[in-house]
Amino acid sequence: MNRRKTIDYTFAAQRSVYRFPMLTYIGVYVNFWIIANLLLVTIITLVSKIFSETLDIAITGRLGPFVLTAVIVGLLYGLGLGLASYYLDRTVFKRWSIGKVIIFKVVGSLALLSILLWLIKEVLYVKVIAPSLSLPLIVNEKSWEYLFLLLLVYYFFLSVLVSFITQINNKYGPGVLLPLLFGRYKTPQEEDRIFMFMDLKLSTTIAETLGHLKYSAFIRDCFEDINDVLSSYYVQVYQYVGDEIVVSWPTSEGIKEHRCIKFYFACKKQFQDRATYYETNYGMLPEFKAGMHSGIVSAVEIGKIKKDIAYHGDVLNIAARVQSICNEYGKSFLVSSYLFEKMAAHSGMATETIGNILLKGKSIPTEIISVEGFE
Fold first, then answer.
1. pTM of the entire structure?
2. Which of 116, 146, 172 is the last residue of a domain?
3. Does residue 212 sit within a domain?
């Protein structure tokens, strides 16, 4: 998988999630549980053939009804869990502890499984399975108990797997799991990316005013509001560092429609729209300064106890240095001319050339442009 294909796949997956969040979320659950149920049918079929050959017992029947049952149950189970998880993860679960969320999901899954088992027993078995196999409509209740235990154990372990998949997607972002599983980042890979460093203005003063506990809540709310803007501009969060957030785009996608520029001003508008909340709870409105640059970086999987995908290269150093001089020049949003020149001209963008600045630790000056507004 070359660099271009990896970026294309990752961004396509990300774009799908951002454009159709509920459908992609539910789709993961539905597809996963249909495949899981088809695997269970395959296992049961093979086990029945083993017993048939070993004990010389004739077990006849068509596979179609079981496949149909597996698909229907997987569809209903995945749809139910997907819808519930989608809405609860974005509302109730945001404020719950992990333990409380796990207990709720386990109880909910067992309740849904019980309903589906009743559906299998009272509807699918009577209408589909029994007629196809010429079986009696009355089956020993003990058999249903064993079936329930089988599904309980199987669904429990598969639930752990699907939870792992969703957690990986939450940590690394959509579209990263497959390249990660195939070892894409085991060795350093080059990528052409834009990086934006966004840092809270007057953070020390705000921390002293609010106190560390309320300041942490303030930062949490700021990052949550920024996260609400991510999807509209296809932004990938690279990392959170204290009161700073680092975001990124593949360069070709970030400059398209001036997404990387629009994102910053969309964040400002988000804070302004929530001004009443911030003034009421904290007595102030957050304001972030930002620096941005682009170029070739290397991406590699790092860590053993705690794994992560890290980006390295001078691009990140320059972007961070550009952000660090915002206060010096009294500006909020500075961009390197190298990145700015890659974007098409736009009549609604107000800019000011700062000049060639010798950034800290650099031997060659970098031309910096201040973006004052975008309409």
1. 0.74
2. 172
3. yes
In-domain check, residue 119: yes
Coil, strand or helix: which one is 263?
A: helix
Query: Which two tokens mark 169?
Result: 């997607």
Number of domains in the chain: 2
Which residues, 6+ apart, have CB-to-CB distance to 177 below 8 Å? 165, 168, 169
pLDDT of residue 2: 47
Instruction: Give the Cα separation of 297 and 169 in Å (integer).
Output: 22
Tell me the C-alpha distance between 261 and 257, whole Å.
9
Burial class (CB in 10 A: 0-12, 13-18, 19+), 262: middle
The DSSP line for 123-153 is IIIIIIIHHHHT--S---HHHHHHHHHHHHH
Please give the pLDDT value at position 51.
75
Residues with Cβ within 8 Å of 371's Cβ and at least 6 positions away in sequence, in order, are 261, 264, 333, 334, 335, 349, 350, 351
Query: What is residue 138's predicted lDDT score, i.e. its pLDDT?
Result: 47
Q: Which residues span the domain enclosing 279?
A: 187-374
Mark the ranges of the chain whose per-residue pLDDT is less than 50: 1-6, 137-138
* Two structure tokens written together for 333: 């949003």
Contact indicator for 245, 228 with CB cutoff of 8 Å: no
Whether 161 and 127 share a structural domain = yes
Whole-angstrom distance between the N-terminal and C-terminal Cα of the chain? 39
Residue 91, in any domain of the structure? yes
Q: Domain for residue 182, yes or no? A: no
pLDDT of 92 reads: 76
Determine the pLDDT at residue 139. 56
Q: What is the pLDDT of residue 176?
A: 66
* DSSP line for 165-215: HHHHHHHH-TT-HHHHHTTTTSS-EEEEEEEEEEEETTHHHHHHHH-HHHH
Pairing of strands 333-336, 288-302: parallel
Q: Is 342 exposed, middle or buried (0-12, 13-18, 19+ CB in 10 A)?
A: middle
User: Which residue among 125, 145, 172 closes a domain?
Assistant: 172
**162 and 249 housed in the same domain:** no
Sequence-separated (6 or more) residues with CB below 8 Å from residue 292 = 194, 195, 196, 197, 260, 319, 322, 323, 333, 334, 335, 336, 339
